[in-house]
Amino acid sequence: MNRYLLQRLLQLIPVLLGISCITFALMHLTPGDPAEIMLRADGIKPTQEAIVATRHTLGLDGPVHKQYFHWLNRVSHLDFGLSYSSGRPVFTELMSRFPATILLSACSVLSAILIALPIGVGSALYPGRMLDRLGRVCAMLSVSMPGYWLSLLLIYYGAVKFKLFPVMGMDGVSSVILPALTLGFGMAGVYIRLIRSSLLDVLGKRYITAARAKGLQEWRIIIRHALRNALLPSLTLLGVNIAGLLGGSVIVETIFSWPGIGKYAVEAIFAKDYIVIQGYVLWMAVVVVLINLTVDLLHLLLDPRIRLR
């Protein structure tokens, strides 16, 4: 276990280095001068002398490879640079918005599980019946309904018409319900179909037949034997979704004015704050690789066959 973990951590180093190199190169290929953008944000007329002085202050007048290694050295110390718009450290801005993103991600995953798990299990236990048909309809609506449209529907009925929840922003526990339902319902459809197909496959295995022949109770067979193995594919997909949620759900956070990382990235894009975009992309890469590593470790714990190999 420890050897596997060490190998995976060492494999992350070239991946993150490659992503940092690509991110830095793309930011230098984008149109616009960061020095000019920074001067305009401060309300200073971007004369040629001011631009040259600002570029020297930011270290943008040196060779590109020196700029990259200087930036990489600062990033290794969790210094992503200063935002052109606000002048505050990018890492501080990201960390100040991360708790809101974590709260929204956790509630979204919880709502997706509460929707998908009972419907998916019921569809597998009663295939072809009414519950299975309702599960198919629910999955189809989840996959086909755009997130922005569902967001507007929930805002209209849940906040404007019936006034049950706050319209926008982060104001108490009730404010997270609408955006979490939007994201959770959007994810639930895939999990309904995946849980149904995986559980149907597992229920046809010989060890399930043997467990029934021993006289074990049906609920014990489903929960302790069948469902544990059937959820492994869903666990892999859940890791990918969690990584995306922790990186910020851009559309939903923007519509609901949720003060998370995704909304912060959208504001940086409109402001052409390239240093923030650069830090955000690198942050996303770190989150994705760490979540994938966590999912692989969970697979080791849940599936003894992987440990034996």
From TrEMBL:
It holds the Pfam family BPD_transp_1. It is found in: Cell membrane. Residues 98-299 form the ABC transmembrane type-1 domain. Keywords: Cell membrane, Ion transport, Membrane, Nickel, Nickel transport, Transmembrane, Transmembrane helix, Transport. The keyword DNA repair does not apply. SUPFAM superfamilies: MetI-like. The keyword Cell membrane applies. PROSITE patterns: ABC_TM1, PROKAR_LIPOPROTEIN. It is a multi-pass membrane protein. The chain crosses the membrane at residues 12-30, 102-125, 137-157, 177-195, 230-252, 280-302. The complex is composed of two ATP-binding proteins (NikD and NikE), two transmembrane proteins (NikB and NikC) and a solute-binding protein (NikA). Belongs to the binding-protein-dependent transport system permease family. OppBC subfamily. This is Nickel import system permease protein NikB. It comes from Paenibacillus odorifer.
